[in-house]
Amino acid sequence: MTERILIIGAAGQIGSELCSALRSLYGIENVIASDINTLNQSLVEAGPFEIIDATNFNQIKDCVEKYQVDTIYLLAAMLSATAEKAPKQAWDLNMESLFHVLNLAKDGVIKKVFWPSSIAVFGPSTPKQNTPQHTIMEPTTVYGISKQVGERWCEYYHKKYNVDVRSLRYPGIISYKTLPGGGTTDYAIDIFHKAITDKHYNCFLDANCTLPMMYMDDAVAATIKLMHTDGDNLSIRSSYNLSAVSFSPSELAAVISKHIPNFSINYNPDFRQQIAESWPNSIEDTIARKDWGWQHQYDLETIVAEMLNGLSKHYKKQQTF
Ligand code: SER
């Protein structure tokens, strides 16, 4: 029988693109999208859709039973910047949802789980360059703490209950189809919107604040590849380091300027600068490359070209209405 998939948080930045990619692979009817509301009408109309509050165990379980789901991709989470403003809600959402899904797997109701972790699991005491898989992890954000603890629980459920849970430490993910919500790396998306609409960007991070980043297509490809790998090949059941490119706002602005010569940028760092400073500049991911053949495709130049091309079309379409 074909695998039946439930995506929790399918209206979000990663969830929405993962949903389309998984539907192309498994068929629309076999990928159930869910989110906390129906605001994303195109998602609601594109295929099976259910309202699920990720903190509500029964809503998840009912949906799993209704569609005979085997695999859950849990993408609902409160990201780093938003979580600092609502620590309790962030903790509740990020942790409760994970326990609900892990417990469904532990009880044999579902077979497989994908749960994303993040570069936010690292902190100021972590080595900043080529951060290894196994290193000091003392995160200083609520989001980072929730992801680090989540990783520990994933490994625990795997070792103790044989739960097939798989995870990636995503860097900042860059995409144009759906806006991100409340992350520190979001500047690397905002900048493209403003480059096209205003030819100017007021950046909330410092010019030289280098962070690990990845184009959405690479993130989706990595996720699907990890989920398709034979479980025996996976040596990491907490979460894999995953890397593609690293750049600073000024380096990104320089490449954008090659396409939009009159583009300008100024820097007004806010509270997110401190969060960004606590994260690595670059990530070492040889274990992912060895265990399941991870290879990224997009470098900084191709990311910029793709982003400007995709967003220009989007804004042109808007003008015709
Ligand atoms: N992109 C996320 C954030 O900035 C990091 O995982 O919060």
Q: Summarize the helix and strand pattern as letters.
A: EHEHEHEHHEEHEEEHEEHEEHEHHH
Stretches with pLDDT under 50, minimum 5 residues: none
Cα shape:
globular
Report the top-level CATH class of the largest domain: Alpha Beta
Strand content: 5-15%
Q: Helical element count?
A: 12
Biggest β-sheet: count, sense, barrel?
6 strands, parallel
Structural classification: alpha/beta
Tally the beta strands: 14
CATH topology of the largest domain: Rossmann fold
Mean pLDDT: 97
Q: Any ligands, ions or cofactors bound here, and which? A: serine
| CATH architecture label of the largest domain | 3-Layer(aba) Sandwich
Radius of gyration: 19 Å
Number of domains: 2
State the end-to-end distance: 44 Å
Full CATH superfamily name of the largest domain: NAD(P)-binding Rossmann-like Domain
The helix content, as a percent range, equals 40-55%
For this entry, what is the oligomeric state of its chains?
single chain
As laid out across the biggest beta sheet, the strand order is: 3-2-1-4-5-7
